[in-house]
């Protein structure tokens, strides 16, 4: 799962900080965490200060989202709806099977993981 949290560094953190309007030093510290919590509250997400797939999706950071078996949440539900499987929000065997069939059908890497290429083909965030 793609997760940005306290201690994370790099370009994705800089982008997150720019979107949230905090100092852009590329280090996920207390100010970034507080801004994430505030954003999560405004989006009615679990306000844990961790920018996981659901938070990243609401911020438009789709290129930084990866979903894989075991992941849970609203973004998984959106994936399940697109794949036509039960929308329980848990990336389990049924979701994996449907995803791999979709990947094969689309001619993209069949790995059972949802990264930017698979997200693009699913049109989840358009």
Summarize the entry for a quick read.
The protein has 126 residues and is mainly α. Helix content is 48%, strand content 0%.
Structure description:
This protein is mainly alpha-helical and 126 residues long. It has two domains: 11-52, no CATH class; 74-122, no CATH class. Helices cover 48% and strands 0% of the residues. It contains six helices and no strands. It has helices spanning 11-20, 30-42, 53-58, 74-83, 93-106, 116-122. It is elongated and about 45 Å long. 25% of the residues are buried.
Structural class: mainly alpha
What pattern of helices and strands is seen along the backbone?
HHHHHH
Radius of gyration: 15 Å
Total domains: 2
Mean pLDDT: 94
Identify the overall geometry: elongated
Characterize the largest beta sheet: strand count, sense, and whether it forms a barrel.
none
Q: Tell me the β content.
A: under 5%
- Distance between the terminal alpha carbons, to the nearest Å? 21 Å
Q: What portion of residues is helical?
A: 40-55%
Unreliable residue stretches: none
Could you state the oligomeric state of the chains shown?
single chain
């Amino acid at each position: 799962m793609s997760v940005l949290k306290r201690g994370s560094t790099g370009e994705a953190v800089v982008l997150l900080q720019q979107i949230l309007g905090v100092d852009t030093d590329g280090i996920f510290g207390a100010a970034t965490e507080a801004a994430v919590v505030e954003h999560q509250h405004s989006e009615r997400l679990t306000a844990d200060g961790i920018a996981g797939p659901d938070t990243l999706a609401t911020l438009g950071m789709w290129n930084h989202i990866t979903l894989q078996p075991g992941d849970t949440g609203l973004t998984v539900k959106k994936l399940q709806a697109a794949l036509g499987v039960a929308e329980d929000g848990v990336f389990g065997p049924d979701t994996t099977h449907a995803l791999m069939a979709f990947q094969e059908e689309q001619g993209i890497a069949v790995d059972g993981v949802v990264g930017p290429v698979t997200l693009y083909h699913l049109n989840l965030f358009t």
